[in-house]
Design brief:
Length: about 375
């Protein structure tokens, strides 16, 4: 097992930070929990001893390699003429705010013993690197070095890693719901359908279920729905308007179909001919447009109302959605007239400009009102 870390390419004479502190960050305090080492660990020899003790306690822990990488970075900087000190700081086991506070306190303690004007952070992952802004409060961070582990690629190691992932998929409810639940439903439905002789028809059902599951997970629909359906006034308002809006949007399709002239539809027997006939398309859009716009407006109005009840400061964006929807209606309606009655395309410009002007004026008024309210709140505070 070895490590790979980037070399620091810097000219000492051209650098403002010539007294550097190489900090190895162990945010979850493995060095303390596993090896019983009290941090901060200051100095090359002390860090080597800490890394060796941690490696003996847990050879698979990457933090020991991070400490060695920090020592290697320290030696590289010494050879380039910097005045450097290497240290190891640690947080707490559960990470979080307490870990960041402990790392900040240890960094301040180190600075009382070694006056540095720059820091080089060495870590083994993004979690440890999240403390960079914390350290920047007391010391400028000039570089962040991430240790990338090179591990054995043997078959035994691959099986071990694969087994850990399988165990996680089987027992972690966060992953098992999707990776076991959805296939389980599909297999159950397929087995029951095969018993009753519906194996051919069930294929379409299984594909639909699988596609729906992929869409729900891809767009976080389940999380959005769970947050919207919470037993709060905002949740009920959003849930009602969302369901009503979706039903209205779906009902706009039969409304558009019923608006098509039956004689014109019968004259075009093929589906492609109906789709390419601009009069049929115009009649369909004209019939579906009112119901479709009401459905979308219902969803936008529900979002505005729920945010207003909950005191969430998003009324400007929510209001602009409704204003833009209303402003677009004349433009889309004129488009249907062009398709049905063969009106000139330039007739689309007046409603387009009118809708754009209405949207810009409304946005300007809303933003001025918002800024005025914010300035009043700042004065009152």
């Amino acid at each position: 097992m070895s490590q790979q870390v980037g070399k620091i390419e810097k000219d000492v004479s051209a650098s403002d930070a010539n007294r550097l502190l190489v900090i190895c960050v162990d945010r979850d305090n493995d060095v303390g929990e596993k090896a019983g080492i009290v941090t901060p660990v200051i100095g090359r020899n002390a860090c080597i001893e800490a890394a060796q003790r941690l490696a003996l306690e847990d050879p698979e822990d990457a933090d020991s390699n991070s400490i060695f990488a920090a020592i290697k970075t320290y030696e590289d900087l010494i050879s380039k003429g910097y005045k450097v000190q290497v240290v190891t700081v640690a947080g707490v086991k559960n990470r979080g705010v307490q870990a960041d506070e402990k790392i900040l306190a240890e960094t301040k303690e180190i600075l009382t013993k070694f006056s540095a004007n720059g820091a080089v952070i060495v870590s083994d992952g993004e979690d440890d690197e999240s403390v960079v802004p914390v350290i920047q409060n007391v010391l400028p961070v000039v570089s962040v070095q991430r240790v990338v582990m090179k591990v054995s690629r043997s078959v035994e190691y691959s099986y071990a890693v694969f087994g850990k992932y399988l165990k996680m998929l089987a027992y972690d409810s966060k992953y098992s719901k999707f990776f076991l639940g959805v296939p389980g439903i599909l297999l159950l439905i397929g087995g029951v359908a095969t018993v009753f002789g519906y194996s051919a028809e069930i294929f379409a059902v299984l594909v639909s279920i699988l596609g729906g599951a992929f869409l729900i997970r891809a767009f976080d629909i389940d999380r959005v729905w769970s947050s919207w359906s919470k037993p709060t006034p905002m949740g009920f308002v959003r849930m009602f308007t969302m369901v009503a809006g979706i039903l209205l949007i779906l009902s706009s399709v039969p409304a558009g179909i019923s608006a098509v002239n039956p004689e014109l539809a019968e004259a075009n027997t093929e589906l492609i001919a109906k789709i390419t006939d601009k009069i049929i398309v115009g009649q369909f859009v004209s019939g579906a447009l009112p119901v479709l716009w009401i459905g979308m407006g219902s969803i936008f109005a529900g979002t505005l109302l729920s945010n207003w009840i909950g005191g969430i400061p998003r009324q400007i964006s929510d209001s602009l959605r409704i204003i833009a929807l209303v402003a677009l209606y004349p433009t889309v309606f004129q488009f249907t007239n062009i398709m049905i009655h063969d009106e000139p395309s330039l007739s689309l410009i007046p409603p387009l400009l009118g809708g754009l002007a209405a949207t810009l004026i409304s946005a300007t008024i809303l933003f001025k009102k918002y800024r005025r309210r914010k300035s009043q709140e700042m004065v009152s505070d």
